[in-house]
Design goal:
This protein is of the alpha/beta class. The chain has nine helices and seven strands. The longest helix has 19 residues, at 19-37.
Length: 219
């Protein structure tokens, strides 16, 4: 229970219990952690406001909820979410990160392009910075591993977390076979042992649907 003590009070220093203040402060601290862990565009994303529009997206939502409820990252279990652009993969990934933070774990969502940009020192420092986070989400992975240095850092990251039994979530627009090719056989085989792959195939892009909605006036 937190206590609040006004400063320079005319009645002298005193303290009183304030449950509402404690709840508010806890929520503020939680939201601060979320904002530090997730890009601004996805600060408000959670499981409750994810709207599935097909059987695959319904399954993806259910699986992501189960992964989160079981705190599966704590035992080294991984999750890969595949599908075309604009179908809500990052929304689900951000929701997992938000849930992990509410459970008291350190979690972070980083984009694959951001990990692969900059100088050699920049790239190495980014990978070093995230390797011990309890839950890592690498969003929008594509062909970053074509960069020899990045490929080595990705393997080291996956191998390190494999041995430490720490989970990893990856989202990508690649197909399973293309993902294997992009990661390379040794990386893919290393991660596959503890990984569930979700492939969302039966839905049009959310962005396309939104565009059609905004152009309804033309009908």
């Amino acid at each position: 229970m937190l206590y609040f003590q006004p400063e320079n009070d005319i009645y002298g220093p005193y303290s009183f219990k304030c449950p509402r203040y404690a709840k508010w402060k806890k929520q503020v601290e939680l939201e601060k952690k979320v904002m530090e862990a997730i890009p601004k565009k996805f600060w408000d994303k959670n499981f409750d406001n994810y709207i599935p529009v097909s059987e695959d997206t319904k399954t993806a939502l259910e699986v992501c909820r189960k992964y989160s409820s079981a705190k599966a990252w704590r035992t080294g279990s991984n999750l890969i979410i595949l599908g075309t652009y604009g179908i809500g993969k990052t929304h689900l990934a951000a929701a997992i990160v938000r849930f992990a933070i509410t459970q008291g774990d350190n979690a972070v969502l980083v984009t694959a392009p951001s990990l692969a940009s900059g100088s050699i020192e920049d790239i190495r420092e980014r990978f070093k910075h995230i390797r011990n986070v309890e839950l890592i989400v690498i969003d929008d992975f594509s062909n970053e591993a074509e960069h020899k240095l990045v490929a080595g850092e990705i393997f080291e990251l996956i191998n390190y977390r494999y041995e430490a039994e720490c989970g990893l979530v990856i989202t990508s627009n690649l197909t399973p076979s293309n993902l294997k090719e992009a990661l390379g056989d040794r990386v893919f085989d290393r991660i596959l042992e503890r990984t569930l792959i979700l492939h969302i195939k039966d839905v049009d892009s959310y962005r396309k649907r939104k565009r059609e909605k905004y152009l309804e006036w033309m009908d």
